[in-house]
Structures are given as structure tokens and as C-alpha cells.
Design a protein that fits this description.
CATH architecture: Beta Barrel
Strand content: over 45%
CATH topology: Porin
Largest sheet: 9 strands, antiparallel
Helix content: 10-25%
Structural class: mainly beta
Number of helices: 1
CATH class: Mainly Beta
Distance between the termini: 41 Å
């Protein structure tokens, strides 16, 4: 019963994101980012920590000047090889006379691992740093709780990524 609730909630978030995209398209300001992330992730529960490699693709839609919605599918090499499907809302800050775009983001994710899926909250930030026309590198950090059966796991990831805007 619990899994079906989580899946329904995730589906509702995706539906809201799609409605935002349809509405944003009417204004002609929609931009898309595709790319990937890789880095280090650490999970900690009951006084024990487990570190691993974190990587996966991402897709983001920027509607209006500073608002975006996105999704990621991340694979981690910790015990059980957890897979994270994350959906998030992002706010970009403007820096006068600079093309660097720092941001904060937050959202929800599902973690697929033995005994899962598990619901999680996700918060973080980073910056898109231009390196060529429409191409960015993106240092990033995320953290938050994963609500696993019988415990809460605290998750932390430091990643670097590449983004292409079209």
C-alpha cells in the first residue's frame, strides 16, 4: 500500500511539471537543458556511512527567466546499488554583468534499492558556468533525508556535470 502512494505522489509531481511546461510554452521563453552528473555520494544511517560514485542523466526546462523544473535518474555505487529518480524545482539567481547562473533547488525523489522504493526530500544548489556557446559545467551539491523502512538515511552528494542548452 505504501509503495502505491509513493508512486501516485511521484506521478502527480510529474503531471504538475508537465502542466508548467505547457503553460510556459505559451510565453515563448522556454529553454531546455540536457546533460549529466557525476561525483561522490554519501549515505548515513544509524551511525554508519557508505560512500560511492554517483552518475546519471538530467533534463531541465527553464520557463520564465529564473524558474525551472527538472528530473534526474542517478545510479549510485553504494551497497545495494541504489537508483534515484529525482524531480525538482529550481530558482536561478541573476548576477549583473556575469554569465554564471547560480541556483538553489528542492524537490522530491524515489530511491529504488532492496526493500524500496523509498520517498526522499532533496535540497541543494550549484551554478551553471559557461564554457562555450550553450555549453555549461555545473558544480552541484544535494542533501536530504531518505525515509527508509524503520530508519531515515541522510544523503549527501557533491557532483560536477555538463549541460547543453537549446
Amino acid at each position: 500500500m505504501e509503495r502505491s502512494r509513493l508512486m501516485k505522489f511521484q506521478s502527480l509531481l510529474v503531471a504538475v511539471a508537465l502542466l508548467c511546461l505547457v503553460g510556459a510554452g505559451a510565453y515563448g521563453q522556454t529553454q531546455f537543458l540536457v546533460g549529466g552528473n557525476m561525483g561522490l555520494s554519501v549515505g548515513s544511517a544509524a551511525g554508519e556511512s557508505d560512500a560511492g560514485f554517483h552518475f546519471g542523466p538530467m533534463f531541465e526546462v527553464i520557463f520564465q527567466k529564473n524558474l525551472a523544473v527538472g528530473t534526474e535518474l542517478n545510479i549510485n555505487t553504494q551497497a545495494g546499488t541504489p537508483v534515484e529518480w529525482a524531480d525538482y524545482f529550481k530558482y536561478y539567481f541573476s548576477i549583473p554583468a556575469s554569465k554564471v547562473r547560480p541556483y538553489v533547488d528542492g524537490g522530491f525523489s524515489l530511491w529504488f534499492v532492496t526493500g524500496g522504493p523509498y520517498f526522499a526530500l532533496r535540497f541543494g544548489g550549484g551554478a551553471n558556468i559557461p564554457i562555450a556557446k550553450n555549453l555549461y559545467i555545473a558544480p552541484d551539491m544535494h542533501l536530504g533525508p531518505i525515509f527508509a523502512t524503520g530508519t531515515t538515511v541522510f544523503y549527501f552528494a557533491m557532483t560536477g556535470g555538463i549541460r547543453y542548452e537549446f
